[in-house]
Each structure stands twice: as C-alpha cells, then as structure tokens.
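pasting for the record
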Amino acid sequence: MDRFQAMQVFRRVVEANSFSLAAENLGLPRATVSTTIQNLEKLLQVRLLNRTTRRISLTPDGASYYERCVSILSEIEETEASFRDVTRGPKGRLRLDVPPSIGRLILIPRLCDFHTRYPDIELVLGMADRPVDLVQEGVDCVIRIGDLKDSSMVARRIGTFESIICAAPSYLAREGEPQTIEDLTKHQAVQYFSSRTGRAYDWDFIVDGVHTAMKLKGVISVNDGDAYLACGLQGFGLIQTPRFMALNHLASGALRQVLPNTISAPMPISVVYPHNRHLSSKVRVFVDWVADLFNGCPLLGTGVPGATPENLCGFAGEPSDTTYRTVIEHHNLAESVL
C-alpha cells in the first residue's frame, strides 16, 4: 500500500466528510477510496472512522492521525514547492466560486490577463447561485459579499459597493416621489424573500451614522434577482439595488434614482480560502491578482457621475443576475454559509 497516497485519501475523506465526495475530488472510484481507508486501518491496527449509512465521524485515534497527516502532507507540499523551477511559475487546477454577477461583469472580461500571466494554471470557475462548502467540495477559494462569520477561513477584503433606491418613471408618475426616508413607508416596494425562510427582507440605511432597518409594504414578492429588477422596471414599486447593476437602466431612463443622498450600508467583498498553514502558490497569485483587479475598478465604488458599465473598467453587457439577492440579504448574513 502506498502510505503517502493513503494519507492523502484519508485527509480528503475527513475534509469532505464523505467517501463519495472525496472520490470525486480525487478522481478515483469510490470503491478505491473505501478500500484504501480499510487497508490503512488494518495497517495501523486502529479504527479511524465511525461509519453509518448517513454520516462518518472521526474516532479519537482518527482525529489524532488526521492532525499528523495534515502536518506531514503540508511539509511535503512545501518542500516540493521550494525545489520547483521558479521560472516556471505556479501550476495546477484552481477551483473558484464567485457570485454570478461578479463572474460575468468583472472576472471573465479580465481572465485572459490572468491566464497570460499564469498559463500553467487551469481555472475551474463556478458561478452557481448557492453558497459552497470549500472543504467538502474541494474549492480553493471563493469571492463572497457581506460580513463573514466562519473563523476557519481566511478572508481578504478586496472591495465594496453600495446600493441605491430606484423606480420606474411610470411608478413615480402614479405614486409620486419620496422626499425623505420616512416617506418610503407610504410607498410600495418590490419585496425580496428568503428561499430558506420565506421571509421578506427589510431595507436598510445609514442614518446619522446608525444602521437603520425599515420594513416596506408591497404587492409582489420574488426570490430571484432578474425578477426583482424586472418588477421594478414594470412599475410594481421601489427597488434597492447595487448601483452598478442599475447603470444601464438609469442611463436609458427606464429607471430613476430617488433619494440620491440616502446612504446604504457598504457591502464588503472578500476573497476567502481555507486556513492552511501553507498557502499554495496558485491561490496566492490569484488572491493578489483579483485584489489588484477590484482595487482598480470604480464600477464597485460609490457613484460615478455619467458612468455606464461600458465606460467603467471596460465592462460591457447587460447587468442582470442574482447579485440583487445577495445585496438585499446582507443584513441577515448569518443565513449564509461558506
């Protein structure tokens, strides 16, 4: 039995908490993974994992062995990396996960630059509208919006953006334009509800330096970003949306900003990766690259007079996806998991 491979398989099973996921991440048949763990237990003459039909868990011996495996494998990886030809640069598969709008509007238009710099890195970019578990799904790093709660992850803030209040001209002609935050209680708003709880999210603002939440009434509720924007464009009510997502519609007149001096809570954007003692070179170069990319992109800042997606950072295309959902949910980020 290859003990080095067995240690790698064992670590991946523990981190994925699943034989099937570990096999998928390693590119091995599930039977091979199961047999490897069984042979490892025979070799060590201890039981490493408790297995049931629904879950697996570490035994005390398994927990101790796992810690030793992580330490040994990390030392080996660091040693190998230190002897590689530095002129060759980082290489290997890099699995990423990002919000759909961030991927389409910001990352993808610039990925050729990253590939040119690091041609030996194979990018696997996920943009599903769901939070991923980095460890269980074998993802190297993610971009997240909002405050982060998971202390087992390392987070580096790379940008922020703010949301604005908009409405269709047809709605404002019918209902009038609010002049103060208090006036919002007299208006209709498109409601956005949580897919997990079914509860509609409140709006929030910064008033005299204090975070203030407000519950608005409405005649329609959705849980999809495209539908949220479409309802606003159709005149169902006011919407609170990221500035850069509304730029095209503001420029065309399909939407009008109201209460322009109202301040919403800035939304932090972070790149997040597992807390490993040895950060791989491929993750390190991506984190540095994406931080520079976001730092130079006014599209994600506060208002830029006369700006459109086409003249900010060179991003073109219709801004429409589920980033709306992330922004509206920001006051309740405890529901989000990494």
